[in-house]
């Protein structure tokens, strides 16, 4: 083995290598971004149209559809297009095929937006086009409250704090939630306008003509060139009141005669309260590859400086800070790994009985991990629960290469070779088997790379971390371990080798007598275990068929009986320290009433959760002021009847899940007519839900919306009765109250008015002039331009009579008319939201699950779909989306993947053994491993999940690697001329120690992880449990079953050999 | 023998161990499955229970919903007389300024009319001349009559003289009439208030030239009777049927934002104007304190009431379906959907013209997907909110 020789000859190279690993490793550990999950690089392009006052149906029909259709023809590699059309907003999200060049996609989308713009309703502005990825979630939110008016709060957040935070790398900050959007309001006085015969459009036109943003220029006078400035726009708000509107009979009518211009805000359409105080919420999203922790710390470090510039009495508080959870989760995994490594090292000390080889093991584990972290860092990955989990998982196997090497060196030392020869011989001997076992563990992880979507981005870094650590460990065991052995094992070991069992005679015996005693006791115990093993193995070898049959039967029966009871999840439930509750009152409930409802609900929450356990309750009612916010987050808010209530728990709260269960029971009973849904509150679930507000999304798509809705209602009724389904609700509301104003155009024409006069008057009264005739007023003091909006104050129009009495004025003195004279009014239902999926209208039933596994629920859902298939409207289709879809995809790839892994490992061993049969013997050990996994999950009530499957894959690898050792030993024995039974017995006995050692190391290493303690600990617990269960059974299988099968397989072999021997054909 | 027992013992021990292991395995399996089935059935029960929606029910209410018709109106004086000059001349003096309260016959102004005076004098002179001529003709005629009796003159000559006398008498009458006319005109030098009221216009001043050439010149004064006002409203055709004489209305004026004035419909034109499709309706508004001024703009509010026995439901109870409006009623804990027809809608409440009875329990804010026959849990029962329509009437000062 040349590399071992090189390592021994050029020890300094190895030391330098180690120093480099430590240096770069430490650097990597410090620098590597820390996050909850790996980057989920699924690019999404969102397009946000804003057109205030446009109803959802119009938004969908006139803007969104048009855009979507153009999109499909002009943008390449589109996977799906989803859109939401809401009151005044159209949000289109475009998902691309994997591997698409996102900048091209972005450019094409922007081009489409520009192309269609001319064909869209007048006055529309180009949409926001932004790109982000599936894991763009709010990582921290700043709540501004205090003795500052709401207008000021919003102004500060939007125009002063937001730009300051924009410099935090990776932070994306859309508009603030809540508050009042400072604007210059021209409150139209309808009576005065009618009395003066001034129409709303005349007021708006006057504003447009009198408040200009037009440059004047320069003039050269004598030797100088002077600026010429024009009083194009009043510098004081009050002066706008003095703008002339029109002249009638020599009398000039001023703005103040028909309107009152003042500093104000349009009617509040987004209300945020922090513990009941009006507040403004500034969410910070993670975007790009920056880590959650760096963003949150960046934001938090800027707060003190921000506070300096703020008015007195303003509180900036941090809400929904995910960094604590993320940090705790990573720390949890890291400490699990550290505990695992320490336990493993202790175990090694116990097995090896000497500190020197233990030191070598203890040094090589962190080095391998450092190499892995270093490479991960270089590849742009982060340290997260996945990669750290992978490393923690690897710890148990890492000892393998090193211990095998050291064990082997000792064996050779015992045979009396000198140290160098012993090392070389040992290196040569195990080079291939170690490589095979390392490769077989690596190969089993290959199927992880065929996953798609979220699962791919989540689990490949885990696989990568394991593979990297294993390869590093293999290389280290070829380089560092021999060198270190050369220096550390010295003559003493050699002497020990001469003087009987080497591990009993430590120089430090007197210092560590109790430990040594313990070690001796352990050795005695192990010896007894060995004897028992030999006895049992002999027994089994005596009745091989019965044993093999019984063992296989037990394994297969375990799998067959227990597996159906396990249930399937995508990812284990993780509960953080906050609760997010979405409420929806009766469609069209006004924001003030929703706020009152929220107050009552919050009071109830405070009754259920001890007030001392509540840090804050924040609520966010109605749609945000900016469409940008909706592109990023989707909590299912579609109008003023919706609110999100976020309860942030104090430090020592009870079980979040327990609270949620109680609230789920109590709230619907106490607040009839209101729909409640608990949203994913922590960063993990938010990412796993892919930005949707629920984990199950039953989506009915088809062109007949009414029939789809009726069908959805039927499905909803059935779904509500599926055990474990909670918060089932229809996302689309079709009963938003609408008043249809049908103008009699002929009548209007006869009295000298047109539809556009009516529309103008309605627009200025009901939604303000800003959309159609945008106008700005610059505050020269702060340098901020504020919108100038002409609108009738909402309190002036607050009944149906008020609507009918809206005066309609035409251009130039047509007779005074009121709306009621020209139009009829009819009440009808309207769409509160129109959603499309791939340019088809859809109805979504959102639901989540609790107390039961997602797989069984999905089975029930599929049953319901089958039973109701006949009622499904013609041409409609139903899809189950959300986590269910992700899970089904992941499973459909992982199960064949595990099969492929086994096949690959088999082929690898075929190469190794140059035989078809022996590798098959190894594969027969795997059902036992599977049975072990099933048992472990069964008795711990853990459903199968992707982490559990990862553990399964891991188990396959280790079980194979261990069996490879046994079989190669047995083959050597066989080659040495022993009969199959003896060879099997010898192999079983001979490999007992290393196999037990590896398995125990692994099991102990997984121990802390399997307990699932701490924040986010639940997510890797199934992995630990699967590995422990699988290894327990696999070890038994490796030590008993595999030798017995080997003996059976080679029994005839042996007969042939003895038969053929005289003929001179050696085996 | 001892070896045999040893073997037997180990054999038995093995069996015991195997049996214990088997029991543990079976217990684990059975236990695990039992716990799971139990959990599942408990969960199924809880899910079913939670799937039953809780609802609030209300009973419909009898009231007349009110709606308000608000129209622009013009306030005019009870009587209003513009006062023009009948005579040309110069204004000598005016005595009442705008805003002055006048009684009928009060002198408003006096016009200097030198030309008229001259004409009068001339006419008087002409009258004198005519009278003189008449006298002469009378004498002549008498004389000729006398002579005719004696046949001193011809009959012809006598007739000539008699006719001449008649002509001259007529000329006197004409001249007298001319003088009388000018005297009458002289009276117009004094502008007089025609009735009790307020001077609302004064468009002249001392020394102003006044020409009496008709309508092209503005009035000199206007006097308005404002003890009560007439308010003219153009009611759109669609509302005319609901407006009847004697109906009360309220006036709101921009100049008195906090005040509501009472008014009563006194007559209507009963004709729809072709150009605006409106009917002119006249209201009387008492004006004891003179707050209402002629020419004011007023918002006239008519309260349109309907049948006081209509059933009323808040709009939040309505369910909109493709096949019309429905409400969900609760009968024995189960939902029964009822097709309803609605009458008038005030925004917060609607009249239910058919479909439910006054005793029906109607679900308020029904969940988004109620099906007939579905079990519900009634959480609360309220009468329909009594002041649902209050928002309809904006309070003064808002």
From TrEMBL, chain A:
<feature type="transmembrane region" description="Helical">
    <location>
        <begin position="545"/>
        <end position="566"/>
    </location>
</feature>
<feature type="transmembrane region" description="Helical">
    <location>
        <begin position="1027"/>
        <end position="1049"/>
    </location>
</feature>
<feature type="transmembrane region" description="Helical">
    <location>
        <begin position="893"/>
        <end position="913"/>
    </location>
</feature>
<feature type="transmembrane region" description="Helical">
    <location>
        <begin position="456"/>
        <end position="476"/>
    </location>
</feature>
<keyword id="KW-1133">Transmembrane helix</keyword>
<dbReference type="Pfam" id="PF00873">
    <property type="entry name" value="ACR_tran"/>
</dbReference>
<dbReference type="GO" id="GO:0005886">
    <property type="term" value="C:plasma membrane"/>
</dbReference>
<keyword id="KW-0812">Transmembrane</keyword>
<feature type="transmembrane region" description="Helical">
    <location>
        <begin position="333"/>
        <end position="353"/>
    </location>
</feature>
<protein>
    <submittedName>
        <fullName>RND superfamily multidrug efflux pump acriflavin resistance protein</fullName>
    </submittedName>
</protein>
<dbReference type="InterPro" id="IPR027463">
    <property type="entry name" value="AcrB_DN_DC_subdom"/>
</dbReference>
<feature type="transmembrane region" description="Helical">
    <location>
        <begin position="12"/>
        <end position="30"/>
    </location>
</feature>
<keyword id="KW-0472">Membrane</keyword>
<feature type="transmembrane region" description="Helical">
    <location>
        <begin position="359"/>
        <end position="379"/>
    </location>
</feature>
<feature type="transmembrane region" description="Helical">
    <location>
        <begin position="948"/>
        <end position="970"/>
    </location>
</feature>
<dbReference type="GO" id="GO:0042910">
    <property type="term" value="F:xenobiotic transmembrane transporter activity"/>
</dbReference>
<dbReference type="InterPro" id="IPR001036">
    <property type="entry name" value="Acrflvin-R"/>
</dbReference>
<feature type="transmembrane region" description="Helical">
    <location>
        <begin position="995"/>
        <end position="1015"/>
    </location>
</feature>
<feature type="transmembrane region" description="Helical">
    <location>
        <begin position="430"/>
        <end position="450"/>
    </location>
</feature>
<feature type="transmembrane region" description="Helical">
    <location>
        <begin position="920"/>
        <end position="942"/>
    </location>
</feature>
<feature type="transmembrane region" description="Helical">
    <location>
        <begin position="36"/>
        <end position="55"/>
    </location>
</feature>
């Amino acid at each position: 083995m040349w590399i071992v020789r090189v390592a021994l000859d050029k020890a300094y190279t190895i030391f330098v290598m180690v120093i480099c690993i430590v240096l770069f490793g430490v650097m990597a550990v410090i620098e590597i971004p820390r996050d909850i999950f790996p980057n989920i690089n699924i690019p999404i392009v969102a397009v946000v149209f804003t057109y205030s006052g446009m109803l959802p149906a119009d938004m969908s029909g006139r803007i969104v559809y048009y855009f979507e259709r153009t999109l499909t023809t002009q943008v390449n590699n589109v996977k799906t297009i989803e859109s939401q059309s809401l009151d005044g907003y159209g949000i289109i999200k475009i998902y691309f095929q994997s591997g698409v060049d996102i900048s091209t996609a972005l450019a094409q989308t922007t081009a489409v937006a520009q192309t269609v713009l001319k064909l869209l309703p007048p006055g529309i502005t180009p949409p926001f086009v932004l790109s982000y990825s599936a894991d763009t979630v709010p990582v921290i939110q700043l709540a501004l409250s205090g003795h500052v008016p709401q207008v000021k709060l919003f102004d500060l957040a939007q125009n002063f704090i937001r730009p300051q935070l924009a410099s935090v790398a990776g932070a994306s900050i859309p508009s603030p939630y809540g508050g009042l959007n400072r604007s210059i309001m021209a409150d139209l006085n309808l009576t005065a306008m009618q009395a003066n015969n001034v129409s709303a459009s005349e007021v708006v036109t006057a504003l447009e003509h009198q408040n200009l943003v037009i440059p004047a220029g320069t003039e050269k006078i004598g030797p100088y060139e002077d600026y010429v400035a024009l009083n194009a726009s009043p510098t004081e708000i009050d002066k706008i009141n003095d703008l002339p509107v029109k002249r009638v009979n020599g009398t000039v009518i001023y703005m103040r005669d028909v309107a009152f211009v003042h500093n104000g805000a349009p009617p509040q359409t987004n209300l945020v309260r922090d513990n009941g105080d009006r507040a403004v919420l500034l969410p910070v999203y993670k975007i790009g590859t920056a880590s959650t922790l760096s963003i949150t710390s960046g934001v938090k470090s800027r707060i003190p400086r921000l506070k300096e510039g703020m008015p007195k009495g303003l509180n900036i508080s941090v809400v929904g800070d995910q960094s604590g959870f993320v940090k705790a989760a990573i720390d949890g995994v890291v400490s699990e790994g550290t505990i695992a490594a320490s336990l493993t090292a202790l175990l090694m000390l116990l097995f090896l009985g000497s500190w020197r080889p233990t030191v070598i093991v203890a040094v090589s584990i962190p080095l391998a991990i450092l190499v892995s972290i270093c490479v991960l860092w270089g590849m742009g990955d982060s340290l997260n629960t996945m990669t750290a989990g992978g490393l923690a998982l690897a710890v148990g196997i890492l000892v393998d290469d090193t211990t095998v090497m050291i064990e082997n060196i000792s064996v050779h030392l015992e045979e009396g070779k000198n140290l160098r020869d012993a090392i070389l011989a040992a290196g040569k001997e195990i080079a291939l088997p170690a490589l095979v076992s390392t490769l077989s563990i690596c190969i089993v992880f290959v199927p992880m790379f065929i996953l798609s979507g979220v699962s791919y981005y989540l689990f490949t870094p885990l696989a990568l971390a394991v593979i990297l650590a294993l390869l590093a460990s293999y290389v280290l065991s070829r380089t560092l371990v021999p060198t270190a052995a050369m220096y550390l094992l010295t003559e003493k070991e050699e002497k020990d080798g001469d003087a009987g069992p080497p591990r009993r005679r430590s120089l430090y015996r007197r210092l560590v007598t109790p430990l040594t005693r313990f070690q001796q006791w352990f050795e005695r115990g192990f010896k007894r275990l060995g004897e028992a093993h030999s006895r049992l193995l002999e027994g089994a070898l005596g009745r091989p068929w019965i044993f093999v049959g019984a063992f296989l039967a037990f394994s297969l029966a375990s799998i067959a009986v227990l597996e159906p009871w396990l249930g399937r999840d995508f990812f284990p439930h993780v509960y953080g320290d906050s609760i997010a509750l979405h409420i929806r009152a009766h469609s069209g409930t006004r924001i003030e009433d929703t706020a009152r409802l929220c107050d009552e609900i919050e009071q109830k929450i405070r009754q259920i959760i001890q007030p001392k356990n509540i840090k804050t309750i924040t609520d966010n009612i109605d749609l945000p002021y900016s469409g940008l916010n909706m592109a990023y987050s989707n909590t299912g808010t579609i109008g003023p009847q919706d609110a999100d209530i976020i309860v942030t728990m104090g430090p020592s709260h009870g079980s979040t899940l327990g609270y949620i269960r109680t609230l789920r029971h109590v709230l619907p009973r106490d607040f009839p007519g209101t729909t409640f849904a608990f949203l994913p509150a922590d960063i993990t679930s938010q990412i796993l839900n892919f930005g949707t507000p629920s984990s199950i999304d039953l989506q009915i798509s088809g062109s007949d919306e009414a029939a789809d809705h009726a069908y959805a209602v039927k499905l909803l009724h059935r779904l509500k009765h599926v055990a474990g389904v909670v918060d089932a609700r229809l996302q689309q509301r079709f009963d938003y109250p609408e008043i249809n104003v049908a103008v009699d155009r002929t009548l209007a024409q006869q009295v000298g008015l047109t539809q556009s006069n009516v529309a103008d008057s309605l627009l200025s009264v009901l939604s303000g002039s800003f959309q159609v005739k945008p106008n700005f007023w610059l505050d020269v003091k702060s340098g901020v331009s504020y919108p100038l909006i002409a609108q009738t104050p909402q309190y002036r129009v607050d009944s149906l009579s008020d609507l009918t009495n809206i005066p309609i004025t035409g251009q130039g003195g047509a007779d005074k008319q009121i709306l009621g004279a020209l139009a009829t009014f009819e009440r009808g239902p309207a769409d509160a939201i129109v959603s499309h999926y791939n340019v088809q209208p859809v109805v979504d039933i959102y639901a989540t699950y609790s107390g039961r596994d997602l797989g069984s629920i999905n089975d029930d859902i599929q049953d319901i779909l089958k039973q109701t298939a006949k009622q499904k409207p013609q041409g409609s289709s139903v899809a189950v989306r959300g986590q269910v879809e992700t899970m089904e995809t992941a499973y459909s790839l992982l199960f064949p993947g595990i099969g492929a892994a086994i096949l690959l490992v088999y082929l690898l061993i075929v190469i190794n053994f140059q035989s078809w049969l022996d590798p098959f013997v190894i594969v027969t050990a795997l059902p036992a491993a599977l049975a072990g996994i099933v048992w472990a999950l069964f008795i711990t009530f853990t459903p199968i999940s992707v982490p559990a499957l990862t553990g399964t894959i891991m188990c396959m690898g280790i079980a194979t690697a261990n069996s490879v050792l046994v079989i190669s030993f047995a083959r050597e024995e066989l080659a040495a001329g022993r009969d199959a039974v003896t060879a099997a017995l010898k192999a079983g006995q001979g490999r007992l120690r290393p196999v037990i050692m590896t398995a125990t190391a692994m099991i102990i290493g997984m121990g802390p992880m399997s307990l699932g303690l701490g924040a986010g600990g639940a997510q890797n617990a199934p992995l630990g449990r699967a590995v422990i269960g699988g290894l327990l059974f696999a070890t038994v299988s490796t030590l008993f079953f595999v030798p017995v099968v080997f003996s059976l397989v080679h029994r005839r072999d042996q007969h042939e050999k003895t038969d053929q021997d005289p003929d001179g054909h050696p085996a | 023998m001892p070896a045999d027992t040893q073997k037997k013992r180990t054999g038995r021990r093995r069996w015991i161990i195997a049996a214990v292991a088997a029991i543990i395995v079976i217990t684990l399996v059975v236990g695990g499955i039992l716990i799971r089935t139990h959990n599942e059935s408990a969960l199924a029960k809880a899910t079913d229970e939670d799937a039953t929606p809780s609802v609030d029910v209300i009973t419909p209410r009898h009231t007349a919903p009110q709606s308000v018709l608000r129209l622009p109106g013009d306030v005019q004086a009870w009587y209003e007389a513009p006062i023009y000059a009948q005579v040309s001349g110069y204004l000598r003096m005016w005595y009442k300024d705008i805003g002055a309260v006048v009684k009928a016959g009060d002198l408003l102004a006096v016009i200097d009319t030198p030309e008229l005076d001259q004409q009068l004098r001339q006419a008087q002179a002409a009258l004198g001349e005519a009278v003189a001529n008449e006298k002469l003709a009378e004498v002549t005629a008498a004389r000729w009559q006398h002579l005719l009796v004696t046949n001193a003159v011809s009959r012809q000559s006598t007739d000539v003289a008699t006719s001449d006398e008649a002509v001259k008498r007529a000329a006197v009458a004409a001249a007298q009439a001319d003088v009388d006319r000018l005297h009458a005109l002289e009276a117009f030098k004094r502008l007089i208030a025609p009735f009790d009221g307020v001077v609302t216009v004064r468009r002249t001043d001392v020394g102003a030239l006044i020409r009496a050439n008709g309508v092209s010149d503005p009035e000199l004064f206007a006097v308005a009777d404002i003890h009560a006002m007439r308010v003219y409203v153009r009611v759109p055709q669609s509302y005319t049927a609901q407006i009847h004489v004697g109906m009360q209305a309220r006036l709101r004026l921009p100049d008195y934002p906090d005040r509501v004035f009472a008014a009563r419909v006194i007559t209507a034109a009963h004709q729809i104007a072709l150009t605006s499709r409106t009917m002119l309706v006249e209201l009387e508004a008492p004006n004891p304190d003179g707050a209402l001024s002629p020419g004011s703009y007023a918002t006239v509010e008519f309260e349109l009431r309907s049948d006081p026995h209509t059933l009323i439901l808040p709009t939040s109870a309505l369910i909109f379906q493709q096949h019309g409006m429905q409400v969900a009623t609760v009968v024995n804990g189960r939902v029964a959907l009822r097709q309803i027809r609605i009458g008038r809608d005030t925004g917060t409440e609607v009249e239910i013209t058919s479909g439910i009875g006054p005793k029906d329990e109607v679900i308020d804010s029904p969940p988004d997907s109620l099906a007939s026959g579905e079990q519900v849990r009634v959480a609360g029962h309220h009468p329909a909110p009594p002041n649902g329509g209050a928002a309809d009437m904006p309070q003064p000062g808002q």
